[in-house]
Amino acid sequence: MSHNASHILVHLLHCPVCALGPGRRVGLWLQGCSIHCEGCMSPDTWAFDGGNALDVDVLLSELSGFFDGTPPLDGLTISGGEPFDQPEALLRLLRGIGELGIQDILVFSGYRAETLLARYPEIPVLITALVDGPFEAGNETESGWKGSANQTMRLFRPEFEERYSRWAETQKGGLQMATNPRGIFIAGIPRQKDVAQILEKVASTILSGGEIPGRRRQRGFRGAAEPQGANELCPLEPE
Predict the structure, then answer these.
(1) Ramachandran region of residue 138, left (φ > 0), alpha (ψ -120 to 50) or beta?
(2) Which of 30, 91, 108, 237 fits a disulfide with 80 by CB distance 3.0 to 4.6 angstroms?
(3) Within-domain flag for 225
(4) Predicted confidence band at 179 (pLDDT cuts at 50, 70, 90)?
(5) CB-CB neighbours of 204 under 10 Å
(6) Confidence of residue 180 (pLDDT cuts 50, 70, 90)
(7) Which residue has the higher pLDDT, 207 or 113?
C-alpha cells in the first residue's frame, strides 16, 4: 500500500474506453494491489512499482486534456490494481477531478463498499458510482459490468440513475484491446471461462505480427503513444 499523497502509481491512461463503464470514457488503471484475488487476469498491476509514480497535478492536467477534446466523453473509469491501496493520492486526485468539472466518475475496487465508506466517508460526494467486492474465481456471472456474481454496484448521484441502470443491464460482450508501453492491454470484463482462450488469441496476434485494433490516444506512465487505427472495439470473444 502507498501513502504518498503527491504522487500516484499509474499503470495506464487510455482514451477512449468503451468497454468499462457507460459510454465513451477515459480509462485510468492504477498500479499496485495488496488483495491478489485468485484468478485475476491483471497480476501485472499488483506490484507497487515506484517507477510508475506520476505527480497527481500532472495526471490532472493529462485528464483535463482528454476532456477538453472532441467528440465529448461521457466519463472517467478508475480501476487497477486497487485504487484504494493509494488512498491519500486517490482522494486528492478525485477532489481535483471534481474541480475540473468531470461529472461521471466510476471506480472499481476489490474492497467492500461498507469498508470503504467507513474509512473514507467523502466517497459519495467524490464519485458517481462504485463497483465493489473482490473477484471470486468460479463465481461466474453474465453481467457485463462485473467479474464475479458477488460484486455489487453503488450509485451515489441520482442524476445518473438512467445511464447506470442501462449499463447494469448489459451482458458480457466485446472487449477492447490496445497497446501500452509494456505490450498488449485488454479493457473490459470477460466471462471467466473464456479468459484462457482470449489470452491465447492475444498471444497469437502478437506472434503473427497482426494489427491491433483499438489503438488510440493513450499514455503509459512513461509518455504518450501516437494515435493509430480506427476501431475502438475489438472482437475478442471466443469463437
Answers:
(1) left
(2) 30
(3) no
(4) low
(5) 10
(6) low
(7) 113
Beta strands in the chain (DSSP E): 7-17, 25-30, 53-55, 75-79, 105-108, 129-132, 152-155, 176-180, 183-187, 218-220, 223-225
Grid cell 487505427 in the structure block, residue:
229
The residue type found at 132 is D
Q: What is the 3-state secondary structure (H, E, C) of 46-115?
A: CCCCHHHEEEHHHHHHHHHHHHCCCCCCCEEEEECCCHHHCHHHHHHHHHHHHHHCCCCEEEECCCCHHH
Is 236 among the domain residues? no
Look at residue 205 and tell me if it is in a domain: no
Bond preceding residue 87 cis, omega within 30 of 0: no
Query: Are 46 and 81 spatial neighbours (Cβ–Cβ below 8 Å)?
Result: yes
Q: How far is CA 34 from CA 37, 45, 46, 140, 172, in A?
A: 9, 10, 7, 23, 27
Domain count within the chain: 1
In a domain, 89, yes or no: yes
Segments forming the whole domain that contains residue 62? 7-171
Asked if 220 and 181 touch (Cβ cutoff 8 Å), the reply is yes
Q: What is the mean pLDDT of the chain?
A: 84
Does residue 237 carry a pLDDT above 50?
A: no
Q: What angle do CA 57, 61, 64 make, to 5 degrees?
A: 135
Instruction: Write the CB contacts of 198 (distance below 8 Å, at least 6 apart in sequence).
Output: 175, 186, 190, 236, 237, 238
CATH of the domain at 151: 3.20.20.70
Task: Please give the average per-residue pLDDT across 144-170, as a whole number.
Answer: 96
The pLDDT of residue 186 is 78
